[in-house]
């Protein structure tokens, strides 16, 4: 066989296997792991589909990964207690090195991993070790497993048998016996249960019961049922051999039912048993926490009542008697035991009737054991956990954490009324009206932390105890792992920052402030004011000092140490009177504040002198004092000594003034060059932010306008450019130059968006194409072009400031702060996580914030250069109800241990293809049901010593769609196109910023112009190709875009990129069924012909299983004018599937000069589980085309509908020679398959199809498959994975 260029194709040398390369899936289980008493490191074990991954908590590095099950995702992990330290081991205890440490389960699959295997995995020392589960054997239990436990080594017999237990979805406990005779062998005992309701959650706890029989182990079981009840019971496990048990006349009791709790109004999704807790009076209590889809957290008392033994009444054929739960199947006389009420069959549904509830007569009072109840989260609560602390003798609250579908973690503090609790416990909660459920304590919500993207937090782990740090890990549907807890273990914050949260009134501060007595003398002639004195303005002078002003005109200087200390700043009567009515306060440099008054006076306060002095008087009320980003580098680079400059705006003046101060000479300079506040777009221009970008002065206005000024030789800064963003009327709050750039800057706005602009100077006569949205100001020598490069809405309602900071790994991060609802938020754009959330009442209040190593307060919003400070620590002060609240944070509430992705199912995957170099996959885009698009860069290998696993580097997130995204494609590397419901179709412009900040710049350039009146159609698919005369290395002038809509309409447009103009070329309607796919059939354009001379042809697929070829002849007029569109004609229609076509891919066209035809190879996948290979030919007959096809059908290619299909390799031969196409298909059966089709060029014989490989896919509900690199294919669905298929 010969390939391109006449070379024969050697099929034996083409790769025939798929190899797993990368996976990013939901984290389904988590556990903390301490390897040995001699190893202080803390590890997190994370389950990602079938893999167990090990991360170092301190460094966030992936240490190793181990494939545990073949095709079953891991659902749960249990880590047993630490083995004895070497110094405490006795002779013969070395065999503990092979003791099972980790119990793993998923569905009904079970495995254990010994200590020795974990040790081998940790030997990598930071280099990830990928081990296929050679040392892990998979065992099968009889039912779905909800929880498991391993018994400590003290319960082993002969050092060769390890005990354990599992609890199933039917409230059964299955004992485990694990033998280590060279290899691990596991046997399952007889299931035991007091009743078999359907559970949604369960938890096991090993008890230290005072049992005379040392061979009996007691397990406390809590099961949450589908119908809102919780069954609490004990299971007794005997380590005696079966033969010895047979010799006894009666077995020991196997179980004992303790309680059946009711109260939840929905299914129980989480239960957690606490350790035994010591209270302040010396009493001990054991608690059970539960959560439900009724959005409540409940805490129950499961402590045994004093001197009371639970008994159940049972009915026999001879009468009524009593029987301790879980007795043997026969009594001492050999009579069979009659089933109790708990073992009877149940009806389904909520309620209190006899036959559909686990609650019987003896359980009627159990619901009174509910100590406290509270409602939290905005949707279902999945899990609840205790921290493990047992000593609460100091009266401290019991800490509980809940984890919800809303992807948040909430902390609760349980406080008990101990006297009331003791009385109720002594009477067994049988006091009637005295024992009201939920009346024995309170659950106080102490904080909400958003942990993940999208929905669902599927796994949690909490590690802690008395004297130990508390660590909390969460894993979500987005594949991310977050960590929170003791920062000494997790990650240190700024050493000088402590955690402080205090609220003070002016009176509180004045009582403790130094120097108040001499400053409280009333001003002569003033009447005594009855107005409440409150705080008005704040300015951080440094990380540890701030200036607070009051409504009475006083200045208070605060210092942060172990606590807040205050000094009153002495003011003369004149200054006090001047500042009482109105003032502005800002801090231009550390240790300095400037204040502007209504009289036009500007005052200076310096910490070193602790006094205030007048600097200058302006002709009118000081409207604002603007701190200028980048002014130090532009105006004072040759002036040592901390000189600074600010912009003063004066009420009534049409210009602003630059005021400079030199501390070394204590001199004030007013720049004679006036800054005239006017523009063609906004009048009056009220400045709210300022910055120098290089030598250019930029101002932002109160209504969203941006103005560029240049300095001339005369007495003014003249307007060089102005722009009014018509999409907002909110104020520009900050302007920050991009690091390493003199032409790009960022603006933050109170409309919740931040934008990045680039300034370009074009010489006179330049021919650069300008965008429609760009405004140009011409001069004699040049014109200035202002490009909007980036426009994004982070999850903040109002942006107040932004700063760039460099992380410990050298990555530049953008930190944004502002308000969302009632909360103050600090947001990391690179990690997409909230660094701070403080409930403050919302925006429109006096506040200030300072970050480590910041040169000034938030009024300046940081500098364009990058600080090397950590992003978490901060200090925030604000006014609420006239009082001051001071909040200091040493570290963020959580950090990311492992990066994640989308929080919902992926529906589209696309890889960019360069027009100039033909490089595939420089950028990768994924779109999901969460309505977001994420841009990535795939790291195919470990290119940096800091990286520990290959994967996807996030570049940008696009959030504009309001409905689930249907399709997405790249146009070169400069544009990305996406479609969704509600007739949403967006064209995104993608550019690489010329700065040290590496994120991609994205702006929505255009959208679908012909929305219907209702706007309720889905654009289910589209295709795009280049159009126009262009050469390699250039950007095409236009795009040819064809859309398939949910009303069976197809439309083709020409989109002119430079003008952002749409022209409708053709449209048609398929009357048989709904369209699902559309592709362009690229026709050969002979030399001298223009695009479209041979018409436009498209291929569509539909829900009735048909492929259709459409064609239209297009005149040249619509290419330049908005003329009347043409109608598509159906050239061919043929049925290939029995039902809907879900996947479609088309090869490149091949032109046969002898036959004057063109051919394509088409592959489709459908709901009929089939994959069809079709050879499609367009044969020239006269002046028309006729479609011919030959097909190869693979029935039952998958066990479920084929949802995606992709050609990954093409090898084409000459006429009569063999051609090869390799295809990857995906399906809802979670299999990924590699196919090879071989056929003869020019022949109408069907292709010969061979299945090359069939692999388990970890991606459920697969939605798309795409080639992202040479030899790499990506599958997207619930998660995403990459497969190697060979270069």
Topology overview:
Layout: E1 19-24, E2 27-33, E3 43-48, E4 51-56, E5 62-67, E6 76-79, E7 100-106, E8 109-114, H1 115-122, E9 129-131, E10 139-140, E11 145-150, E12 161-168, E13 173-181, E14 183-188, E15 199-207, E16 216-225, E17 230-238, H2 242-246, E18 255-261, E19 268-273, E20 277-278, E21 284-285, E22 287-292, E23 296-301, E24 312-316, E25 319-323, E26 370-375, E27 381-386, E28 398-404, E29 408-416, H3 418-426, E30 441-450, E31 457-465, E32 468-476, E33 481-485, H4 487-490, E34 500-504, H5 506-512, E35 535-540, E36 545-550, E37 555-560, E38 564-569, H6 573-581, E39 583-586, E40 592-597, E41 601-606, E42 611-617, E43 622-629, H7 631-635, E44 644-650, E45 655-662, E46 667-670, E47 674-676, E48 687-693, E49 696-701, E50 705-711, E51 716-724, E52 732-737, E53 744-749, E54 754-763, E55 776-778, E56 782-792, E57 798-806, E58 812-820, E59 823-828, E60 833-839, E61 847-850, E62 874-880, E63 883-889, E64 895-898, E65 906-913, E66 920-928, E67 932-939, E68 951-959, E69 965-971, E70 975-980, E71 985-992, E72 1000-1007, E73 1019-1027, ...
Parallel strand pairs: 5-9, 43-48, 47-51, 76-80
Antiparallel strand pairs: 1-92, 2-3, 3-4, 4-5, 6-7, 7-8, 8-10, 11-12, 12-13, 13-14, 15-16, 16-17, 17-18, 19-22, 20-21, 22-23, 23-26, 24-25, 27-28, 28-29, 29-30, 31-32, 32-33, 33-64, 34-63, 35-36, 36-37, 37-38, 39-40, 40-41, 41-42, 43-44, 44-45, 45-46, 45-47, 48-49, 49-50, 50-51, 52-53, 53-54, ...
Keywords: Cytoplasm, Repeat, tRNA processing, WD repeat
Family: Belongs to the WD repeat WDR6 family.
InterPro entries: Quinoprotein_ADH-like_sf, tRNA_Anticodon_Mtase-Reg, WD40/YVTN_repeat-like_dom_sf, WD40_repeat_CS, WD40_repeat_dom_sf, WD40_rpt
